[in-house]
Specification:
- Helix content is about 50%, strand content about 20%.
- It has about 850 residues and is of the alpha+beta class.
- Strands 10, 11, 12, 15, 16, 17, 18, 19, 20 and 21 form a 10-stranded mixed sheet that branches.
């Protein structure tokens, strides 16, 4: 018989498990045997293929051809040096791309789902990779199933199995045995890895993990890796192709002009043709920033790792690009603006009020005043959360509000006097309540908890002095008045009710007896008010969306500095889209008593107004809004469905983390811009120097090998070190970057072009001062220009960082890279390699003019950067 056909007792015996789940020791032993519960979706990186791919470029093919020609004509020094530069360039590109790929691969592994598992009868949260066959897991709406499992208990369970079957229709699931063989889609008592619980609850026994699951078997057949290429990377690749063709055209013009001029003067020899060919190819290779995509990928991935240290997990690299444009944050209240550490502070019935001391989840505190014990019993048993101790600290598995009910029951001394039955009506956003059937000896009851209004709607009586009295309109107003009063004090209020049942009677939410209220506090996070103020300075609008009472939302908003018009879910239900848009324009910044579907409407309205919207969410029904938003942000404590739909997952559910993530995103984008400006300004200057010299009829200020060397040392380490550059001053004091703007807006592009022209002018000026370029070849002057151009790249870099308001000495890696590059340059100039590069040794006069040229360049670059910075505001 198949495992899905066995009775529960036989199944437990077959899996060597127990009704209360495996012990921790048993689970650890099995984990050693079967390995982690992970689907291997990506083949390992082939390093040899990655290295060879660095040479798959038309320009590189030309350079290899030039090397072959050099060796065949006896120019062994030139050929050897070109080959060495080729290999060094290939190695730099290889390590850049290897690092980027490793970073992306590690990002995939960082997104670790969790699971609620019974270990020795205690429900705990664990990484899903630690699941083993025989584990007993608990599932709720929004959970992603992390292993193939057999359902032992369930209530109104429905799952979405499109990831496995391709069918979008929800599957009805329930406990029970199949008496016949059935296909995967027909196994109603099985849950499969990578599917999602949409409705209901379940407890299930894990049968298969990792590659033994149904989804793992499919993965074995087709191993495909999702390309995590962002729009920025795609744009840069396209830009590189266009630039490559333009540069090839310029190189062709340079070659034709040089050959034409030589032919008209004294004819052309094969040696001269080879020399011109080498210059043209070297110029093309030097001008095209082939390493730019890898630099950008590495900058993004290093930034993502930095974000991870700040408790934000980036699931999609494209989100990093969008962060800089974010100008609206739509935030939940609970857990994001507050600490999500619910603690019951008051218990109320129509005849009594009790105050409860103690904060957090430790079941330690006193109750002052009278309170009906049934109020706490309902809270304890109408509940799916659990409390447990780990390393001496009390932790929870499940919803924090339900955990608060367990703590208040423990403080009230409520023991395990009842047994919770399998029948239950799970909470959902429409009903706003939950019901369970419980038994004490031969007595059966229905316990129900939920929002005060939703509970009173199904109550006909109220419990007073232990007896059920009719629920009069006066009592109804008294109950709602108390609930509203607490809501205005920013407390969360739940109502509790019950009704007797027979052993055969089903749960029905009608004719209940109201018992009382419990009021909880969820303290504001200490850093949120400051984070909201930071958003205002950064031009980011903060909108609070909560399911709490209107008065609670107003009270929280006032404390945090979130002001503006308030709308409720009822307001939104009867509001046309254009009216909602107008309300948002008028400053509607607080939304209370909202349903999850309202979030998507708000996002769409804001996007139509031209905003870039970040949206937080944690529930199943939040997924559409998270997908719709420009930056979907799932809470780490939220459902797996929300995390799958999101671009970012907060490992610490704090609004301040969102704001810090936006700041990091702006800084990462700035670093990408710096790298692009550094690479393009230097490469453009090299093209302009050769092109201008040829048009003027000068001897060439730079040889082919010099161009290749400059490209090697200035496009490598310094550009990579920029990925680690700190934020500039005022990163969060400027307006968000408008959507769909180019990578280099007008001011940045102007700075790049001006710097390229200044470097070109400085190089040509220096060459003209040290030699007569019209009549002579000047190796020493050429060496001065060669060194000037390397140093000028770093002067430009200082100017770029000045423009972005970065402190000069704030990046030790960058200055280390600059020192290394300058040291290598001196080694070339003052070693036998100088002869191969056709460079003379600069004398004192030449160093003087070189210093003057660099000084003038520095002043011009600094002034330009400051003026353009002032112009940009």
């Amino acid at each position: 018989m198949h495992l899905y056909q066995l009775p529960p007792a036989a199944l437990l015996a077959e899996m060597e498990s127990h009704p209360e789940g495996l012990s921790q020791a048993e689970a650890e032993e099995r984990l050693k045997s079967v390995g982690p519960n992970e689907i291997q979706v990506q083949a390992s990186i082939n390093r040899f293929k990655l290295f060879i791919s660095q040479f798959k470029s038309f320009l590189i093919y030309l350079l290899i051809g030039a090397t072959v020609i050099s060796f065949s004509t006896g120019e062994y020094a030139d050929g050897g040096l070109i080959l060495g530069i080729l290999l060094l360039n290939g190695l730099i590109g290889y390590f850049q791309e290897l690092s980027a790929r490793r970073s992306i691969e590690s990002l995939r592994k960082m997104n670790v789902p969790s699971a609620r598992v019974f270990r020795g009868g205690t429900l705990v949260n664990l990484p899903a990779r630690d699941l083993v066959p025989g584990d007993l897991i608990s599932l709720e709406p929004g959970d992603k199933v992390s292993a193939d499992a057999r359902i032992l208990k369930s209530a109104r369970l429905r799952t979405e199995e499109a990831a496995l079957t391709g069918e979008s229709v929800l599957s009805e699931k329930r406990a029970g045995e199949l008496t016949h063989e059935a296909g995967t889609a027909d196994q109603f008592n099985m849950l499969f890895s990578s599917t999602t619980v949409v409705e209901g609850t379940a407890e299930a026994l894990v049968l298969r993990t990792a590659m033994e699951t149904e989804i793992g078997k499919i993965t074995r057949l087709v191993r495909e890796t999702e390309e995590m290429q962002t729009p920025l990377q795609e744009g840069l690749e396209q830009f590189g192709k266009y630039m490559g063709w333009i540069v090839l055209g310029i190189c062709a013009v340079v070659a034709l002009v040089m050959l034409g001029r030589d032919w008209m003067v004294h004819g052309i020899g094969m040696a001269r043709v080879l020399q011109v060919f080498m210059v043209a190819v070297a110029l093309a290779v030097a001008a095209v920033p082939e390493g730019l995509p890898a630099v950008v990928t590495l900058t993004l991935s290093l930034g993502v790792r930095k974000l991870l240290k700040s408790k934000a997990l980036v699931r999609r690299l494209s989100a990093v690009e969008t962060l800089g444009s974010c100008d609206v944050i739509c935030s939940d209240k609970t857990g994001t603006l507050t600490r999500n550490e619910m603690t019951v502070v008051f218990a109320w019935t129509p005849e009594s009020l009790a105050e409860i001391s103690g904060l957090g989840y430790a079941p330690v505190g006193d109750i002052t005043g009278e309170a009906d014990s049934l109020l706490f019993e309902i809270g304890k048993y109408c509940n799916r959360a659990s409390l447990y101790q780990e390393d001496g600290v009390w932790r929870i598995a499940g919803d924090p509000t339900e955990a608060a009910m367990l703590v208040s029951a423990a403080k009230a001394g409520i023991g395990d006097t009842m047994v919770r039955g399998e029948a239950s009506l799970p909470f959902d956003a429409d009903r706003k309540r939950m019901s369970v059937k419980v038994a004490r000896a031969a007595e059966y009851m229905q316990f129900t908890k939920g929002a005060p209004g939703a509970i009173l709607d199904i109550c006909t009586h109220v419990r007073i002095a232990g007896e059920a009295k009719p629920l009069t309109e006066t009592l109804r107003r008294q109950i709602l008045g108390r609930a509203n009063q607490w809501a205005e004090e920013a407390l969360r209020v739940l109502a509790f009710a019950y009704r007797p049942l027979s052993d055969t009677e089903d749960l029905e939410e009608r004719d209940l007896i109201f018992v009382g209220l419990q009021a909880m506090t969820d303290p504001l996070r200490e850093d949120v008010a400051q984070a909201v103020e930071t958003c205002k300075k950064a031009g980011i609008r903060v909108i609070m969306i909560t399911g709490d009472h209107k008065a609670t939302a107003e009270a929280i908003g006032a404390k945090l500095g979130i002001s503006g018009r308030l709308l409720t879910g009822d307001d939104l239900a009867g509001m046309r889209d254009e009216v909602l848009t107008e309300a948002l324009r008028d400053g509607a910044n607080i939304f209370a008593r909202t349903a999850p579907e309202h979030k998507q409407r708000i996002v769409i309205a804001l996007q139509k107004m031209g905003h870039t919207v970040a949206m937080t969410g944690d529930g199943v029904n939040d997924a559409p809004a998270l997908r719709q938003s420009d930056i979907g942000i799932a809470l780490g404590s939220g459902t797996d469905v929300a995390k799958e739909a999101a671009d970012l997952v907060l490992l610490e559910d704090s609004f301040a983390t969102i704001v810090h993530t936006i700041e990091e995103g702006r800084g990462i984008y700035d670093n990408i811009q710096k790298s692009v400006m550094l690479l393009l300004s230097g490469n453009l200057a090299e093209v302009l120097i050769i092109f201008t010299a040829v048009l003027l009829g000068w001897s060439l200020p730079l040889t082919a090998l010099m161009l290749l060397w400059i490209n090697l040392i200035t496009d490598g380490l310094p550009a990579l070190a920029l990925a680690l550059d700190p934020f500039g001053k005022g990163t969060m004091e400027r307006k968000p970057r408008p959507r769909n703007t180019s990578l280099l807006p007008a001011n940045e592009l102007a700075l790049l072009l001006i710097m390229a022209v200044l470097v070109t002018a400085g190089s040509l000026f220096l060459y003209a001062m040290l030699a007569d370029p019209l009549t002579e070849e000047a190796p020493a002057a050429r060496a001065a220009v060669f060194t000037f151009l390397v140093a000028a790249e770093f002067v430009v870099l200082v100017g770029i960082r000045r423009y972005f308001q970065v402190k000069v000495w704030s990046n030790a890696w960058l200055w280390g890279a600059i020192a290394l590059c300058l040291g290598l340059q001196m080694l070339v100039i003052y070693s036998p390699l100088a002869q191969v590069f056709e460079a003379g040794v600069p004398d004192v006069a030449m160093w003087k003019w070189l210093g003057i040229s660099l000084g003038c360049l520095y002043v011009c670059v600094e002034v330009t950067a400051l003026l353009l910075r002032r112009r940009s505001g």
